[in-house]
Amino acid sequence: MRKTMLAVLAVCVVALWAVPASAAKTSVVTVWQYAVLSTSGAVQAGNYFTLQGTGFRTWSPAKVCLTGQPCVKSEVNSDGSFSQVDRLDYPGTYLIHVYQLKSRNGGDSDLMFSGELTVIQ
Predict the structure, then answer these.
(1) Is the pTM of this model over 0.85?
(2) What is the percent of the chain with per-residue pLDDT over 90, rounded to a whole number?
(3) Exposed (0-12), middle (13-18) or buried (19+): which is 33, by Cβ within 10 Å?
């Protein structure tokens, strides 16, 4: 009886871990300045721009990190998106990293998005 219960439990655990590849979401972050999408990922130094993310987990805030800047927590909407306004004063290439918790119970974070942002004069 115990062996049967353990076998059933093992099958259930494996079934819960099996996630079809099509179920995985792709997280994307786009860059907007002056209400225009920056297809090149470039923004002007000293002016505000918006990072808009889609495809994120709805139960966990996103932690948005730009090279050399403190990470900022952004709330994710019920549709899996967030919007964050920022400003960078110095030209250069900045890395964007967006993290979310792996579990609802806390713990480590997953890197959900990684990309570059170019700040021009």
Answers:
(1) no
(2) 70
(3) middle
User: pLDDT tens, 40-56?
Assistant: 999 999 999 999 999 99
Q: Which long-range contacts (CB under 8 A, 24 or more apart) does 18-25 make?
A: 25/55, 25/56, 25/80
Spell out the domains of the chain, with CATH numbers in brackets: 25-120 (2.60.40.10)
Residue 53 CB-density burial (10 A; 0-12 exposed, 13-18 middle, 19+ buried): buried
DSSP summary character for residue 67: T
DSSP letter at 23 equals G
Which stretches of the chain score pLDDT less than 70?
A: 1-25
Residues 33, 37, 40, 44, Cα dihedral to 10°: -10
